Amino acid sequence: MADIEHLQIVKASAADVYFALTTAKGLSEVWTNELTVHELVGAVNEFQFGSDDLTKMQIVELIPGERIEWLCVESDPEWVGTSLSFELEEKKGKTYVTFRQTNWAKVTDFYRSCNYNWAMFLYSLKLYCEEGQGMPFQRRKF
Amino acid sequence: MADIEHLQIVKASAADVYFALTTAKGLSEVWTNELTVHELVGAVNEFQFGSDDLTKMQIVELIPGERIEWLCVESDPEWVGTSLSFELEEKKGKTYVTFRQTNWAKVTDFYRSCNYNWAMFLYSLKLYCEEGQGMPFQRRKF
């Protein structure tokens, strides 16, 4: 088994980071603007990346300002069954974001690529929370 | 033990990416502009990040256009003894960069932070190779 784990600092409140990670407005700036987002445990969020690439995340936990957890229920086979969590801790006006995608079967080239791309997602989160504009899929240069 | 592994695509030749990762000019744009860089196996490169933070990397392998390996010999205690490698593979005008920092004692908050920051380094590498200007330590917003 393998996990992806990142820690990043965002100069914004935990409430603002939580908003960015749980609302259609926030996630459309941070990740992809083709999405359906719910704010309810048990519901399934949908994220589209181009015409073929659909990812569905079931919401497992929502603790405002503190913690978000998703279970990937549809996507690339290497993602299905992985757990994704964002833990937020605000200290002196900054929010420490610990991101994890756990339960990968093994370290593959797709794992390596996703590890890089989750950091790009977190960088987009930082840009959106600090400067008002993120770098979602549609605006990234690949 | 724990490893950091990323895979990134740069729209540039492997020769250009190799230049960026092995020369003072390249590494000053990609990582930090306070540095001493050699292009000789066995030599020790020095990278400074602000007044207190010095990292020394002994060059273990240099295969032009293909592979670079460093051994960290001085830095944060969690880094000393880790191996760092960049493997380059050019396909259809793009270079696939596999980066690894192996031999971490365990997954800590510093590991998580470095995992994020190595991706920022790779993003800086991409910006430099594709657009001519990277995002080294001195120009990054933390």
Automatic annotation (TrEMBL), chains A, B:
InterPro entries, A to Z: ASHA1/2-like_C (IPR013538), START-like_dom_sf (IPR023393)
Domain Activator of Hsp90 ATPase homologue 1/2-like C-terminal, chain residue ranges per copy: 11-128
Top-level division of the source organism's lineage: Bacteria
CDD domains: SRPBCC_CalC_Aha1-like
Pfam family, one: AHSA1
Family as reported in the entry's similarity comment: Belongs to the AHA1 family.
Name assigned to this protein: SRPBCC domain-containing protein
